[in-house]
Amino acid sequence: MIKESFGSRLFDVINVSLLLLVSFSMFYPLLYCFVLSVSPEAYASQGGLFLYPKAFDFTAYQAVFTEPNLMSGLLNSLFRVLICVPISVFFTALCAYPLSRKDMPFRRPAFLFVLFTMLFSGGMVPVYLLYHSIGLLDNPVVYLIGGLMYAFNVILTRNYFQNIPESMHQAAIIDGASEWYVFFKIYLPLSRPILATVAMFQTILHWNAWFDAMIYMTSDSKVVLQTFLQRIVIGEQWQSIRDSYVGLPPESIKAATVVITIVPILFIFPFVLRHFSKGIMLGGLKE
Question: What angle do CA 81, 86, 87 make, to 5 degrees?
Answer without folding.
Answer: 105
